[in-house]
Design goal:
mainly alpha, globular, 71 residues
Length: 71
């Protein structure tokens, strides 16, 4: 049985998860809007499932704290 918490994902897989391109993921990383992930010797990056889950929770928390716009 695989330990899903130790699973790593590529920029393409992460982009598919968030319905954006891998280039958007790379841009978000450069802009500091997304977790850095682990840089490999080949220059590519990988993200742990747990890091992506933490990011999702942080985004949800920020959205819940944001004031609702009045219509």
């Amino acid at each position: 049985m695989k330990d899903t918490q130790k699973m790593y994902f590529s920029d393409t897989e992460v982009g598919n998860y968030y319905s954006v391109s891998r280039f958007t993921i790379r841009r978000w990383v450069r802009e500091g809007k997304f977790p850095q992930g682990k840089k490999l010797s080949s220059g590519s990056r990988r993200w742990l499932l747990t890091d992506l889950q933490k990011f999702d929770q942080e985004v949800l928390r920020r959205n819940e704290e944001a004031p609702m716009a009045e219509s």
